[in-house]
Design brief:
By secondary structure, the chain is of the alpha/beta class. It has 8 helices and 7 strands, in the order E-H-E-H-E-H-E-H-E-H-H-E-H-H-E. Strands 3-2-1-4-5-6-7 form a 7-stranded parallel β-sheet, sandwiched between helices.
């Protein structure tokens, strides 16, 4: 299957990075046999080439869904995710490009529907971060880029997907523990995550009357390419996740079940909510 490849807009570094180059490798494998909770469904997952997105794609496939894997340019990782989905007996397509580009988002949705037949679940998972100790070091270009990827893209994708989403469809957005705790070195990133939570709650109010549920997941420190390849120092990585009550970082397959719960009918009485797989950190909201 040929990829749709749109050149990225402003990008200051090679984010989000390759999982194939990460050591140790994150745990993406689903932990249990499938129970058919997503049989016949089609999901579009951004950032599905690696990290949390890959784990969600693997779990959705095990539960019966076909998956559109939307990613930036990590073709080797995306191919691996395709193989994981197909090994579960489901269909997968790869769509490469910049979700900060509205036209690309429209293309990704339309290709998903054209090739997989429908769209039932939209997972807005992709994100980027750029650590800065001083707010004066955040350039205008970086600020625009972070908002393009982390929140503009969610608007673009929902706008494109809206006409395809019927009663019973689900939208799941990825926010972050930084929205609730703050992060002194991730000012622009944390700001986008706050916007995502507000977007989730407002979009839920907007769509609930049509039977479309909108929820979010707010992971804590999870071992994915975003952290070591997103500017974290070796010293910080050495102690990554140790400040959680559990004293360790989480793995992608510890987060993916939250996305499954919110996508299937197990959560049929939930909308506008946020789940918190964060190692035991207690937050409000």
């Amino acid at each position: 299957m040929a990829d749709t490849d749109v050149q990225p807009m402003i990008h200051e570094d090679p984010q989000p990075g390759h999982e194939s180059q990460l050591e140790p490798k994150p745990d993406w494998e689903p932990r249990y046999p499938g129970s058919g909770r997503l049989t016949g469904k089609v999901a579009l997952i951004t950032g599905a080439d690696s990290g949390i997105g890959r784990a969600v794609a693997a779990l959705y496939a095990r539960e019966g869904a076909d998956v559109a894997i939307v990613y930036l340019r990590e073709h080797d990782d995306a191919q691996k995710t395709c193989e994981i989905v197909e090994a579960e007996g489901r269909r997968a397509i790869r769509i490469a490009g910049d979700i900060g580009d509205k036209d690309f988002c429209t293309q990704a949705v339309e290709r998903t529907v054209a090739e997989l037949g429908r769209l039932d679940i939209l997972v807005n998972n992709a994100g980027e971060q750029h650590p800065d100790k001083d707010i004066r070091d955040i350039t205008e270009e970086q600020l625009k880029r972070t908002f393009q990827t982390n929140i503009y893209a969610m608007f673009f994708l929902v706008q494109a997907a809206r006409r395809h989403l019927a009663k019973g469809s689900a939208i799941i957005n990825c926010t972050s523990v930084t929205m609730y705790q703050g992060s002194k070195e991730l000012l622009d990133y944390s700001a986008t995550k706050g916007a995502i939570t507000a977007f989730t709650r407002s979009l839920s109010e907007n769509l609930i009357g049509d039977g479309i549920r909108v929820n979010a997941v707010a992971p804590g420190p999870i071992w994915t390419p975003l952290n070591p390849m997103g500017g974290a120092t070796p010293e910080k990585l050495e102690h990554f996740g140790e400040n959680t009550p559990m004293g360790r970082p989480g793995q992608p397959n510890e987060v993916a079940p939250a996305f499954l719960f919110l996508a299937c009918q197990d959560s049929s009485y939930m909308s506008g909510q946020v789940l918190h797989p964060n190692g035991g950190t207690v937050v409000n909201g």
